[in-house]
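Cross-posted from the bioinformatics board.
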Amino acid sequence: MLEAFFVLGEKNAGFDILYHNMKHGQIATKELAEFVRERAAIEETYSKSMSKLAKIASNGSPLGTFAPMWDVFRVSSDKLALCHLELMRKMNDLIRDINKYNEEQVKIHRKTKEEVIGTLESVQSLQVQNSHLQKAREGYHSKCVELERLRKEGVPQKELEKAELKSKKAAESFAGSIEKFNRAGRDFEQKMSESAQKFQDIEEAHLRQMKLLIKAYSHSIEDTHVQVGQVHEEFKQNVENIGIENLIQKFTDQKGTGKERPGPVGFEEYLSPLVSENSKKSRAKAFRIPGLGKRDKEPDSM
Amino acid sequence: MLEAFFVLGEKNAGFDILYHNMKHGQIATKELAEFVRERAAIEETYSKSMSKLAKIASNGSPLGTFAPMWDVFRVSSDKLALCHLELMRKMNDLIRDINKYNEEQVKIHRKTKEEVIGTLESVQSLQVQNSHLQKAREGYHSKCVELERLRKEGVPQKELEKAELKSKKAAESFAGSIEKFNRAGRDFEQKMSESAQKFQDIEEAHLRQMKLLIKAYSHSIEDTHVQVGQVHEEFKQNVENIGIENLIQKFTDQKGTGKERPGPVGFEEYLSPLVSENSKKSRAKAFRIPGLGKRDKEPDSM
């Protein structure tokens, strides 16, 4: 790609295209920062929404057999919130890197502009010489036209010689302009060649840097994507692990709706109060049927 | 897990725990729908934000060597927007499934409540018999205490016989209450056993259905996660594929800042106008140096 840039050709806009293109490099850097800033904001919003979702899960009814599942939802949503919060942080770090690069870019461009002043002068000099060249060419040609006309009209020899002298002088002036123009051209070519290379180096370094920044962007997103995948896998596993039997067991443990059934009640012979307290207690227990006690509410309609 | 539910045991709250637990099943279904609705809203917001991000990318400056990269950002962001929009749609479909299940659930619970009315009556009957049993037991024991006291006091035989008769009658009444209580107990046990099994079947079917709905939820999220991964991979590949040389080449093609250099200008002999127009044009062209024309602006400071 050496010498990809040079300023001539059918539709060239010249030195200033390359000169101004540096500015577009700075614009691109700022736009990339803006893009990443927007992405960071999106991830922050997503993270907050996931925290809200975790809150909804934690507000799930603690009653009923399904209750323990809400914890699985809550944990998963909280973890997703963290993943996206981390991505937001990484995006913010990246914005700092982009801004830092932008500052370096400004310095490099300022330095480069000083370095290419010579080329700018050479461009202007070539423009001046070009204009002289055009005039000299027109002058020479108009003298030739005049000489040809006089020859056709058959004017006196003296007048013809005068016109020939004028034509010769115009030819010399034209040749001199060509000489000067070509000298300016060689100077321009050498300086422009150096500047074009400089501009190209700047562009290549710029694009290399931008691609590095984009790589950091996509690495961060990729890391988060892997983490999010792990959170999903965990969620699936947790749902799988909480079996239906498990949930029903937890419920019966919690509510005490166990398997014990009431045995039949037998006749209880009266015993004198001399009998020990302990044996009295154990007998009394046989009559208590907790499922039917006063503290149990009557069923009502839902 | 057969007979996981029965209503007796140390801390039982009885029939009504199982009866009311159906209501918690409906609450869980509604809460799951609410959770998924929130998730759908989150994905919709994320999708819209990604479209906005794509817009930012498409507004990236079309000037400069970096310009073609914006298309890579735009395409990727647009695709991410689509992925999350699809997830939102799947969540909305899931909400419909959850609501449909909730309607079925309401019907099943209504039917079940009718079916367990007999058990409810049996519970009430057992409570009544239990209360009679307690009274009969107390009556019998108080008569025994009275008889014992009279014996100790050595009251006349006639009075003692009267008390013995009372005690015997109280014992018969107590035995009758036991008989009735045990009959009610057997009826209760049979009906409660059926109802407990019914409640357990309902719980198991409910949890099975809820787990199916959760599976649909996590499958949709997983699908989207895979798609998002593909979009990221594509983005990375596209960035990789647009080489720095490529970008510079595109720029030089677009701007025409090619490699062509100005050749030296030579002396141009004047030719008579008789020479064809075509050859005149081609000569004139040799003097045009487009990079230095009037239409090119002077470089200005950034």
